[in-house]
Amino acid sequence: MALSGTTSWTLQVDEIIDEALERVGGNPQTGNEQKSARRSLNLICKDWINRGILLWAVDEVSQTLTDGTASYTLDTDTIDILDAIIRETDGTDITDITITRISREDYLEIPNKDDKARPSQWFLDRQRDAPVLYLYPTPNDSTDAFRYRRRRKIQDIDASYQDVDVPDRYLPSLTSGLAYYMSQKRPQIDGNRRQELKMLYEEEFERAITEDRERVDVRIIPDFGY
Prior knowledge:
single chain; 22% strand; four-stranded antiparallel sheet; 5 helices; elongated
């Protein structure tokens, strides 16, 4: 028997909904359930953001600095910054310089935030609409750039014909999660069945996020300070 020769199989939103509702059982789905299921899918994706670092939703961004400007409003889909550098460009020479994250309290306690030099510290004010980046000292060179790795939001699901902004390895978890969420909306579903669906969802998510990690050596350095 010949193999397919392809590895591109995936599920679109309507197929995820169909699979999830088949697992739930109960009465046939109604027209309103498609809309309800899409809402639940978006809630699941929002919940995943709180569960850990999703590697596919991490990317690298560069913010051009302006001489004399200390604060910068970042893209609205930015959740948080993982790490950052200042990139200095002198002709063809590029130098990346480490910059340290500080807390809100540390930033507020800086006595003169208008000091100008190459920034060595940064604070991220995570507002509701868009995070605001604050640098100290205030940049004094418009050729520099603040480069950072960020956690971004998962793209919204607003139509049943769409693909989902999730890698294939997370599709089992996403489908199981939707089955569990939709079971809570069908009062005729037995409570034990809901619990089974929840347990399956949590198990599949745990497998996915455990696999979705950077495979590097871990070093544990003891602190002998007193």
